[in-house]
Fold this sequence. Notes:
Helices cover about 50% and strands about 15% of the residues. It has helices at about 10-25, 30, 40-50, 65-80, 90-100, 105-115, 230-235, 240-265, 275-305, 310-335, 345-360, 365-375, and strands at about 120-125, 140-145, 145-155, 165-170, 180-185, 190-195, 205-220, 220-225, 265-270, 270. It binds flavin-adenine dinucleotide. Flavin-adenine dinucleotide binds near residues 130, 131, 356, 363 and 365.
Amino acid sequence: MPAFGFTEVHEMFRREVRNFAQKELAPGAKERAKQESMSIEIVKSIGDMGLLGIGLPEEYGGQPGDWVSLGVAVEEMARASFCEALLPLFPHLFQIALGLTLKEIQQEWVPPLIRGETIGAFANTEPECGSEAAAIRTRAVKDGNSYLISGEKTAATLCMQAKAVLLTANTNPAIGAKGVSFFLVPLNLPGIEKSAYIHTGCKPLGSASIALDNVRVPAEYLIGEEGKGFRLVVAQFDFWRVILCLMAVGAAGTTLDETIEYSKQRVAFGQPIAKWEGVSFEIAECATLLDAARMLCYRTLWMRDQGLPHAKEASMAKWWVPETCVRIIQRCMIIFGHVGYSEEYPIEQRLRDVLGMQIADGTPQIQKIVIAREILGREFLPY
Ligand SMILES: Cc1cc2nc3c(=O)[nH]c(=O)nc-3n(C[C@H](O)[C@H](O)[C@H](O)COP(=O)(O)OP(=O)(O)OC[C@H]3O[C@@H](n4cnc5c(N)ncnc54)[C@H](O)[C@@H]3O)c2cc1C
């Protein structure tokens, strides 16, 4: 099997995105991270740069690029400003999902997402279920040329600002998980009430609970067939997990760089703290952990580019990388001393943001279930 390595094209692309991100996203990032919504101008500038359409159809405004390139863009954006780095995920998700619907529906929703003119969201989690994704209670009942959807979703990232959400609802509760269907739901429909759910970090992304009371959704907004759409889309989700990991890698990488500089300047006991092995070995260990984390992510995206199965590798990354990045940022915070544990520096902010990546899209326990299933076989699942 050929080995993974960045090509010259990837390296050039990284330099381009780094220039853009450091010029356009880094200034004001600390202040924006305290806001409870995304800056529309910033979203638009990311769209104008083409970063919301990497690998998406050119007819919708996308540009060529492989999955590794998408990862490079996300890591570089997260180095400059954490939350905006999530944005490239949603045009992909909508393109994959709406690819199962009518062409007109794709044309209506995907190009504005790629241009950064609109925001989309995804909602499966409910107050009563998260890890057990198929145990949702939201129902969709066919009524003529539409479906009536009722239920409650929660923890839906970006949903306070989104125009539409991709949402799960059960169309046939009698058959349980096999009845879970997937819908496009414009968020201005009558019967929808949104309220903000305040998470510890990722403030500008925001999180919403959505109450749906007999929301009438056109039948053509069903994605794929009844009971099948969600599974078809979820089968593509492995890249989602790696994207969250690369956001964590970006945040940890920039924190480590700042820590290296700080340790050369800060003097204690008559010399820069970088000369004390207690500090330099911490930096050496963090750099090693970060390299391993980064490689787990890019290897998985590269496997996806090669068309190789990568569910196990995506879950290995999703279990280990956010946890490792939390540890790196926390160790850097200690090297900064009390100023690291303050709002003067962005370290506490990044710690809160990256902690969320351990839970979003499946906790470490759920990832280990996937890894074990891939290694041992489905017959050794505990359920
Ligand atoms: C920052 C952030 C963003 C998010 N964005 C979205 C979004 O956009 N859309 C969306 O739908 N959801 C979103 N979520 C929700 C997220 O997907 C869920 O929180 C997650 O899947 C866990 O579900 P839960 O919180 O209900 O925990 P539960 O499922 O109640 O789990 C509680 C604990 O039990 C453990 N556990 C559960 N089952 C098992 C098992 N079989 N074996 C071992 N341990 C188990 C879990 O690991 C966890 O530690 C987001 C969450 C966060 C933090």
